[in-house]
Design goal:
Helix content is 51%, strand content 18%. By secondary structure, it is α+β, with helices and mostly antiparallel strands. The chain folds into 2 domains: 16-79, Helix Hairpins (Orthogonal Bundle), CATH 1.10.287; 84-216, Histidine kinase-like ATPase, C-terminal domain (Heat Shock Protein 90), CATH 3.30.565. The longest helix has 31 residues, at 15-45.
Length: 217
């Protein structure tokens, strides 16, 4: 009889499953705005009154903008984003983060200098922002600060908002401690841990006063 695998090994998805789960995550992010575009087009097909027509066009415009912002963000946060060893402008990452996250409820204070960083560090930063956003479901502020400088810079994100909380099992998935299988809901923090490991870093998630802190160091 073979030895039992460790909890972290037993729950880790293989490469094909990881790819499938990440695709599911991206589709989940796009379903809402794309569905709203379809609804707006259906209203237009019904030859609506002028007021209804303007409402439908406004819905299509806003939803198309949201879908575009989410696609750009996901391409950088989850996709290849350039060749192996490529560097990415942190300023571009800021633009994509704001387009994806800032929605009238959640805003970002960005304290990082503008410089080129290895792509995996930028991908890690964007995924840390998604983790942080989940800790303030009613909205609030995400403050992004650097740890260190230059190409070895890492990050600290402080999430503040009403009823800021630690989502169930997310801290365990980030740290590699015992946690649930990485399913479509949990794959994003699991992927964040993989990115941190590729950068030689560890991601932690903890309470600090009334704030939630996500740190890569």
């Amino acid at each position: 009889m073979s030895d039992a695998s460790s909890p972290a090994t037993a729950t880790a998805p293989d490469m094909l499953e990881l790819a499938a789960l990440l695709c599911s995550r991206v589709c989940h992010d796009l379903i809402s705005p794309v569905g709203a575009i379809v609804n707006g087009l259906e209203v237009l097909d019904d030859d609506p009154k002028p007021d209804d027509r303007e409402f439908a066009l406004d819905l299509i415009r806003k939803s198309a903008k949201t879908a575009s912002a989410r696609l750009q963000f996901c391409r950088l946060a989850f996709g290849a984003a350039g060749s192996s060893g490529a560097q990415i402008d942190v300023g571009d990452a800021q633009t994509m983060a704001r387009g994806h996250i800032e929605d009238g409820k959640c805003s970002i204070t960005w304290n990082l200098p503008r410089l080129l960083l290895p792509k995996n560090r930028v991908k890690l930063l964007l995924n840390m922002l998604v983790v942080s956003q989940h800790t303030i479901p009613r909205g609030g502020m995400l403050t992004v600060d650097p740890i260190g400088e230059g190409e070895t810079m890492s990050f600290r994100i402080t999430a503040t908002g009403h009823n800021a909380r630690l989502p169930q099992n997310i801290a365990e998935l980030l740290s590699g401690e015992r946690g649930p299988a990485a399913d479509a809901h949990a794959i994003q923090p699991y992927y964040t841990r993989l990115l941190a490991q590729a950068c030689g870093l560890t991601v932690t998630l903890k309470h600090e006063g009334e704030a939630i802190i996500v740190t890569a160091s």
